[in-house]
From TrEMBL:
Residues reported in the UniProt entry to bind Zn(2+): 159, 163, 169
Positions annotated as active site in the UniProt record: 160
Protein name: Metalloendopeptidase
Signal peptide stretch: 1-20
A Pfam family reported for this protein in Swiss-Prot or TrEMBL: Astacin
Key words of the record: Hydrolase, Metal-binding, Metalloprotease, Protease, Signal, Zinc
Sample GO molecular function, one term: zinc ion binding
PROSITE patterns, A to Z: ASTACIN
Cofactor note: Binds 1 zinc ion per subunit.
Cofactor list: Zn(2+)
Matching CDD domains: ZnMc_astacin_like
EC number assigned by the record: 3.4.24.-
BP-aspect Gene Ontology terms: proteolysis
């Protein structure tokens, strides 16, 4: 039998070009970056600790690779949600059914039993990886890591499980130089050993042809310097690095290695429900990125220019939700909790993705809480790209999208009480206000400070008398003031009822005050230090919904303030929500 295989396998045919974009980009994005762990062999393969001088594990051809009868016992310890575990087991069923001949078993996964001497343990840990082969008579945890954020797609899961069955990467075959070109100068120097070519002593190709479409093939920029191509097909018009499904040659190789025939034991009926059934309720948001869209620099890329749009996301029921883009351009998606600060794009970041959805589209699945306001940012992989896009959200309940435009004030409410907490009394409602202080915002000399301060004046009205709490959420040190009836920036102590700097211990203001129905209040958001601009949000918690309206002070008070305009740098954002917290 065979020791390790580069597996000549890989899934279904993918077009050489997608949406008119070059195949190199498509190749790069199909191989998961989480498969490129610098501490593992070729990024995602594990071996017993006995290693050669170059760090590669010694594995003899035909020894300890195949699992007897193609059966792999497994366990999945706590660490995944029920939905995530279902995604993993569904990928197992997909692999079993794809390689079976007329439903006669070729390979099979089953839960481990106490008498199993060897089994795999699938864990939600960093990266996507697996031990190669069974490795009998070796004491070790045969771990398969499938990180919940990034590795839970069928193609990636099957890729790692093929390592489990004994297959290695396609581009390491002895005959690979006849089919691909390795660009050594483009490879990170300390990672070049990952592109070593094996000989026929180490591996067995099973006399299958070289397979560009193999699920086990590297993408074109694996371990690249600045995303330069590290491996290029010699044949034109082909795609490498796909992570969708087994290719025809992949299927052939598994059947050959495990001596599969159209007889024997049939596979049991597939009782695992389709993962699609987990996400039956859909909502979609469509828009267009234009040259008038807002711009920002993505994390780690100073002075870059990416057009983006963002919108609020809420869910009526806590649970797992999936977001996927659909566009003619290469999209990139981010999801934030509470607030998105363009100048600090890693702050509050919950999830991000480039191309997990295939065809250069982002996709991620994660648990959302009904008590939290999320900010969804849609941008592109490359700079200065415009085009239409749609975000499709699916889950057990419908997702609410609230767009944030350059010129409009938007509000949306639901009627769900929120559980009590130290600052959120029982049955209270959260109102969220979002905007940006820019160098075109109004200015004043704030009470207790020296210098010129940018500020935002927000009219506050309520229809239910009660205790309300105002809290800022921002990356910088904020200061808040609350006035009754009117605010005069030339006399900042007049009508002042309360103010605060850092009461919640995070350089954010927190003010609690009894508001009377029918009375007008003015909330002033500013900063502790002068001449500071920033994005910000304000949460207001109270017994009823709060109306928040940005004020144009030139119509109410004499001053020399400069008013915010409707440009992409100084938009008006407002949304109001009621949410249920987890008890």
């Amino acid at each position: 039998m065979i020791g390790t295989f580069f597996i000549v396998l890989i899934g279904l045919i993918i077009n050489g070009q997608t949406n008119g974009l070059p195949t190199a980009k498509n190749d790069r994005t199909t191989q998961n970056k989480l498969e490129q762990n610098r501490n593992l062999v070729e990024g995602d393969m594990r071996y017993p600790t006995r290693t050669a001088q170059n760090g590669r594990a010694l594995l003899l051809r035909g020894v300890g690779v195949a699992w007897p009868n193609g059966i792999v016992p497994h366990e999945i310890p706590p660490g995944y949600s029920n939905e995530q575990e279902l995604i993993i087991t569904s990928a197992m069923r997909q692999l079993e059914n794809t390689v079976a001949i007329n439903n006669f078993r070729c390979v099979q996964f089953r839960p481990k039993i106490s008498s199993d001497p060897y089994y795999i343990t699938i864990v939600n840990e960093q990266g996507c990886s697996s031990y190669v082969g069974q490795n009998p008579h070796v004491v070790l945890n045969r771990t398969v890591t499938l990180q919940s954020s990034g590795c839970l797609t069928a193609g990636v899961i099957i890729h790692e499980l093929l390592h489990t069955f004994g297959f290695e990467h396609e581009q390491s075959r002895p005959d690979r130089d006849d089919y691909v070109r390795i660009n050594w100068d483009n490879i990170q120097r300390e990672m070049q050993y990952n592109f070593d070519k094996y000989d026929n002593i180490r591996v067995n190709t099973l006399n299958t042809p070289y397979d560009y479409r193999s699920l086990m093939h590297y993408g074109s920029t694996a371990f690249a310097i600045n995303d330069s191509p590290t491996i290029e097909p010699i044949q034109s018009g082909v795609t490498i690095g796909q992570r969708n499904n087994l290719s025809a040659i992949d299927i052939q190789a598994v059947r050959l290695f495990y001596n599969c025939t159209a007889s024997g034991i049939t596979l049991p009926p597939t009782t695992t429900p389709s993962t699609a059934n987990l996400y039956t309720t859909n909502a979609a948001y469509s828009s267009v990125l234009t040259t008038n869209s807002r711009r920002f620099s993505r994390a780690g890329e100073e002075n870059s220019n990416y057009y983006y749009e963002f919108f609020l996301v809420t869910v009526p029921t806590s649970g797992y939700y999936r977001f996927r883009s659909n566009s003619i351009v290469d999209t990139y998606g981010y999801l934030y909790t509470n607030n998105f600060i363009p100048s600090s794009p890693t702050l509050n970041l919950l999830a991000q993705d480039d191309d997990t959805g295939g065809s250069l589209q982002f996709q991620f699945t994660l648990y959302l809480q009904s008590t939290v306001v999320y900010m969804f940012v849609v941008t592109t992989y490359s700079q200065n790209i415009t085009g239409p896009y749609t975000v499709i959200a699916s889950g057990l309940t419908r997702v609410n999208f609230v767009p944030i435009t350059n010129t409009s004030i938007l509000s949306s409410t639901t009627n769900i009480p929120i559980a009590s907490s130290s600052i959120n009394p029982s049955n209270n409602i959260i109102t969220n206000y979002i905007n940006i202080l820019t160098n075109r915002s109004s200015t004043f000399i704030r009470h207790g400070g020296s210098g010129t301060f940018y500020y935002e004046a927000i009219q506050v009205t309520v229809y239910t008398t009660g205790i309300y709490t105002f809290r800022s959420i921002c990356t910088i040190d904020t200061y808040g003031y609350l006035y009754v009836n009117s605010f005069n920036p030339n006399n900042v102590t007049s009508n002042l009822v309360t103010s605060n700097d850092d009461d919640i211990g995070t350089v954010q203001f927190l003010m609690t005050y009894r508001l009377e129905a029918g009375t007008t209040y003015i909330l002033i958001f500013t900063t502790f230090n002068p001449d500071v601009t920033t994005s910000f949000s304000i949460n207001v918690v109270g017994p009823a919904n709060v109306n928040l309206l940005r004020m144009n002070l030139t119509s109410t008070v004499p001053s020399t303030t400069r008013l915010t305009t409707g440009t992409h740098n100084s938009s008006i954002f407002f949304a109001s929500f009621l949410f249920l917290t987890i008890p």
